[in-house]
Design a protein that fits this description.
single chain, mainly alpha, Catalytic domain of cyclic nucleotide phosphodiesterase 4b2b, 10 helices, about 65% helix, about 0% strand
Length: about 220
């Protein structure tokens, strides 16, 4: 489900409407979040990705607490520093969510839950009986089940975000991350499971390319 919202202004209009639905009467906070997702170094984890995740949350939702999941989606990549700073991007995003939403008057229990949901996107491995965590993770990972050409554009955008990273280091790191997904279902919510076959095909094909590329780089480094 590609997110084609036309011009940047149309994308911002969509996001502002979604923010009003998520947390009414807090437009300055929504605009600040959109500005974060519009930072120039973001080639994939940007406003378009945010819009896609929000749409997927609605698509995959069933009997979930959408108030909390929507807020988790808004904040899950709010901080995206490359390289990461003193803490991971997810941890920094969770702390930002707690701080900003506390000013909006959310109760402690809800603040803790939104921050927890954001932190789960570090590994995308929610525990048992965690429907909200499953929903956010499935929405965030939905690109893995995209058509091959869209998946290829996604991998190129990720590489662009890490342009400063040495090719061999990037390939090895990416292979480690994606290799962990090969033997998993990837998606947990009932409504997202239709993406599993395409996601497995995409991930397996990327891992094969990464392995081949890493072999080339290793061989090329030998005198």
């Amino acid at each position: 489900m590609p997110t084609d919202l036309g011009t940047p202004d149309e994308l911002k209009t969509f996001l502002l409407a979604e923010w009003e639905r998520a947390l009414p009467n807090q437009q300055p906070m929504g605009e600040a979040l959109i500005a974060r997702y519009s930072e120039p170094h973001r080639h994939y984890h940007n406003a378009t990705h945010l819009a896609s995740v929000l749409r997927r949350v609605e698509e995959f939702a069933d009997d979930h607490d959408l108030f909390l999941v929507r807020l988790g989606a808004w904040f899950h990549d709010a901080v995206y520093a490359i390289p990461e700073l003193q803490v991971t991007n997810e941890e920094a995003s969770a702390r930002l969510a707690f701080r900003e939403l506390s000013r909006a008057g959310l109760e402690q229990e809800d603040l803790n839950e939104v921050a927890r949901l954001v932190r789960i996107t570090t590994t995308h491995t929610p525990g048992a009986r965690d429907p909200e965590g499953e929903l956010l993770c499935d929405a965030d990972l939905a690109v893995l089940g995209a058509p091959p050409e869209e998946y290829e554009a996604y991998t190129q955008a990720i590489r662009a975000e890490y342009a400063a990273v040495d090719e061999r280091d990037f390939v090895a790191g990416r292979l480690e991350i994606m290799g962990e997904l090969v033997d998993t279902d990837i998606f947990r919510t009932g409504k997202a499971r239709y993406l599993i076959p395409q996601a497995r095909a995409n991930v397996e094909a990327e891992c094969a390319r990464l392995e081949e590329r890493l072999d080339e780089l290793v061989e090329g480094s030998h005198p």
